[in-house]
Specification:
The complex is a heterodimer of chains A (206) and B (551).
Chain A: H1 4-16, H2 20-25, H3 34-37, H4 47-60, H5 74-83, H6 90-108, H7 117-129, H8 142-158, H9 170-175, H10 189-192
Chain B: E1 5-12, H1 16-27, E2 32-35, H2 50-55, E3 66-69, E4 77-79, H3 109-113, H4 128-141, H5 170-181, E5 187-188, H6 227-234, E6 237-240, E7 244-250, E8 256-262, E9 268-278, H7 281-291, E10 316-323, E11 338-340, E12 356-360, H8 368-375, H9 386-392, E13 398-405, E14 414-422, E15 428-433, H10 438-457, E16 463-465, E17 511-513, H11 528-547
Parallel strand pairs in B: 1-2, 1-9, 2-6, 3-15, 9-17
Antiparallel strand pairs in B: 3-4, 5-11, 7-8, 8-9, 10-13, 10-16, 11-12, 12-13, 14-15
The chains are: A mainly alpha (206), B alpha/beta (551).
């Protein structure tokens, strides 16, 4: 990661991912995203990267009595985004995933996805704060990588399932978001005032 | 370059200002060519895809590029700062449809307040009484729904709203109860959204996504759904979407002669017109005028005053989110059902002058991604892990409040051309230089405190400032927003304004600016109804004078 070409790539990535929202608004423009969305096998992440990213997503939105990012298949959302709209972030993921596993290997002598939740959280908190001494990249800030995966995980959890995450509308079930109101045919005054139930996109009355 | 075509009028921009001009001028028999950045979208193009619409900006601003700096000595950032819609209908296409008349003193801020250090206050050259019939016209054209007797602090009016107020939702019923408990006077937010079929458009489906979204059922009144269909039906409109105006050319007498524009592929075209109307909003209008440099106008067209691009005002918005002990149903209905105007009258004893309006507003809480990513900022909790998941589960009980607040115009706040950053056609990006006046911070803090009190009175379980909108520190600035005003002031003095009281350029006699750019001050209300009303006023005069060959 020390040659000039990589460095320029990462600096460009830094500019694009400075803060979550403005950053994600500045990602390159749409391509044929839907082509990839039926696929749930890796498009651009390697099998090893997939496991590490999936493990990170699982700590961003953990599984409790209700599904979390792993059940929602947020890693698949990220893989498809990196293959399309967010292709500019792929070098950041390549470096960041290698960095996470390097920290994990030095600190616990095991790949990140095999660590228990407490150890994973400890590493992620250090990455978020830029305080992981074992982080191998001077030119790729660990907070930038963490924030990018975090924002991607949240988006994958709650965006339309057709983007590859939010599997079985898991994210919407957790947040009790019924689905797009116009897509569902709108709401009646009785539903607005709470006098009638709302039927969700997964046919539950809430 | 292809053959030069000739029209009576070229209107650049089809939003609130341009759309009304197009409607009125085509109705009067003028042959109009309209240029608009971005596509001509139809109701079927509008849907609830939050990622595509709100996060990735792929629907309304795919090619938008701007730069921002706090002041002349600060570094410049490149991005999308203004929440505008580049499509036929302009930013109105995704507006929340709050439809206010300004108060009489909103047109006379300098006379009302006196000079304020660091601010460039001004009076409008028109009065509320002159505007009143045109407000009425705009309300009836756009089918505003509301209760004309609901706001005891509102402007005087002669006619009621054309449509009855909408029913409420749990969130707004609770907010209204909280406001009443504190002695305030809540009333149904006036909105240009059909509460019954009106103007050949259907009634609202209460799908919950107004702000930021196009209306898939056409119940929301926009120039796209109201003005453009009427104009097309006259046969007098040549609508050219996916075009970018590059330059207004002048003849030897210094009159606007033609408009050069680029099509989607970057090919250059030229249309000749007897009259040119610029309605590109307070960012795009000065950008085009400043790009239109010539030997006669070396500093940009209509800019002998040097004020094109100056006195940019954006409003500053306070926002509060809170949760109830029951489902709020914020995912249903309009953007806003309930508002209050009690604090609007200026009161220097609060530590600031001017004010604004407070409304229940579902944009922070109606769709899960905005709730998860932006509304969370300011709640003070971690944004990942078990606590964050608890936060996400608050979504169905959440309520939003917003205050639309007047910002004071300042000399340093402006739009000019970025010397380095270009758009995809190689045109210079508009550069926003903008910071807040101390009055803005004081007002923002005070209104935010009132909203936190309203949240408590409404029975809030948790409450927090949604810092995406508020100004937490003295160095914070609204880098951009969805309300753009002030960059081509209207006034009677050519030394201190860009256009006259009829929005005609002081310098170029066949050039008009009709959009929020002409606002000398921003008013403490959403601006669109005032842009519409002003456009009807200007169009009436335009038609009268043009038919008498006075322009």
């Amino acid at each position: 990661m020390s040659n000039d070409v990589s460095r320029r790539t990462f600096l460009a990535g830094t500019a694009a991912y400075g803060t979550a929202l403005w950053a994600l608004a500045n990602i390159p423009r749409p391509r044929a995203l839907r082509a990839a969305q039926e696929s749930t096998t890796p498009s651009v992440l390697s099998a090893e990267q997939w496991r590490t990213v999936e493990a990170i997503t699982g700590r961003v939105i953990p599984t409790d009595e209700e599904p979390g990012a792993v059940e929602a298949n947020c890693v698949n959302f990220i893989d498809k985004a990196l293959a399309n709209e967010d292709a500019r972030a792929k070098p950041l993921y390549d470096a960041g995933v290698a960095g996470v596993d390097a920290v994990s290997a030095k600190r616990f002598d095991a790949p990140f996805h095999e660590l228990d939740a407490d150890r994973q959280d400890q590493i992620l908190a250090d990455l978020e704060a830029g305080k992981a001494a074992e982080w191998p990249h001077a030119e790729v800030p660990s907070p930038l990588f963490f924030e990018t995966v975090r924002a991607h995980t949240v988006i994958g959890f709650l965006a339309l399932p057709s983007y590859g995450g939010n599997r079985d509308m898991a994210g919407w079930k957790v947040t009790k978001y019924p689905g797009g109101g116009h897509h569902l045919g709108g709401y009646s005054p009785a539903q607005m005032s709470g006098k009638a139930k709302v039927t969700t996109a997964w046919d539950e009355e809430i | 370059m292809s053959k030069v075509e000739e029209f009576d009028v070229c209107v650049i921009g089809t939003g609130a200002g341009g759309g009304v001009m197009i409607q009125q001028l085509t109705a009067a028999g003028f042959k109009v060519v309209a240029l608009q950045r971005g596509p001509y979208l139809k109701p079927a193009d509008f849907h609830d895809d939050e990622l595509r619409t709100m996060i990735r900006d792929q629907v309304f601003s795919a090619d938008q590029v701007e730069t921002y700096r706090y002041d002349e000595n600060s570094p410049t950032e490149t991005g999308i700062f203004n929440f505008m819609a580049n499509c036929v209908g302009g930013t109105m296409t995704h507006w929340a449809a709050w439809s206010w008349r300004f108060l009489p003193d909103d047109f006379k801020v300098l006379s009302t307040e006196g000079a304020v250090p660091g601010a460039a206050l001004a009076d409008w050259p028109v009065t509320y009484d002159e505007m009143e019939p045109y407000y009425e016209r705009a309300e009836w054209e756009f089918g505003v729904s509301g209760d004309a007797n609901g706001n005891p602090f509102g402007s005087p009016r002669k006619k009621p709203y054309p449509n009855p107020a909408h029913p409420g939702r749990v969130a707004s019923d609770r907010v209204a109860a909280g406001m009443r408990k504190l002695g305030h006077h809540p009333f149904p937010t006036p909105v240009a959204i059909n509460s019954r079929p009106y103007g050949r458009r259907s009634e609202c489906a209460y799908g919950g996504s107004c702000l930021g979204y196009g209306c898939p059922v056409g119940a929301k009144a926009t120039t796209l759904s109201v003005c453009i269909p009427k104009a097309l039906a006259t046969g007098n409109l040549d609508l050219r979407a996916d075009t970018t105006a590059r330059e207004i050319k002048v003849d030897d007498q210094g009159r606007a002669r033609s408009v050069v524009y680029l099509d989607d592929d970057g090919n250059e075209h030229e249309v000749r017109a007897r009259y040119v109307v610029v309605s590109g909003n307070a960012v795009g209008t000065p950008q085009l005028l400043l790009m239109s440099q010539s030997g006669q106008f070396p500093h940009g067209l209509a800019n002998s005053s040097g004020l094109v691009g100056r006195y940019l005002t954006l409003h500053h918005v306070g926002a509060v989110a809170f949760t109830l002990d029951e489902p709020s149903r914020s995912v249903t209905g309009l953007h806003s059902h309930i508002a209050m105007d009690d604090f609007h009258p200026s009161d220097a004893k609060r530590g600031f002058i001017r004010g604004g309006v407070i409304g229940e507003a579902n944009s922070p809480v109606n769709q899960p991604l905005m709730f998860a990513l932006t509304t969370h900022i300011g709640c003070g909790e971690r944004n990942w892990g078990a606590d964050y998941k608890k936060y996400l589960k608050k979504f169905p009980r959440s309520v939003g409040l917003a205050a639309v607040l007047e910002d004071l115009p300042m000399d340093a706040n402006r739009i000019d051309l970025d010397p380095e950053v270009k758009d995809r056609h190689g045109l210079p990006a508009p550069r926003i230089t903008h910071r807040q006046h101390p009055n803005d911070y004081a007002m923002n803090r005070w209104y935010t405190k009132q909203m936190l009190d309203i949240a408590d009175a409404a029975g809030a379980v948790d409450k927090w400032e949604a810092q995406f909108y508020t100004l937490p520190t003295e160095k914070s600035a609204m880098k951009g927003f969805m309300h753009f005003h002030g960059t081509c002031r209207m006034g009677d003095d050519p030394q201190t304004s860009v256009v006259d009281r009829w929005c005609r350029s002081h310098d170029v006699k066949n050039l008009w600016v009709v959009d929020g750019s002409v606002f000398p001050t921003s008013g403490g209300y959403n601006p669109t109804l005032t842009i519409l009303a002003n456009a009807y006023r200007v169009a009436d005069r335009f038609v009268r004078e043009a038919k008498r060959q006075n322009v």
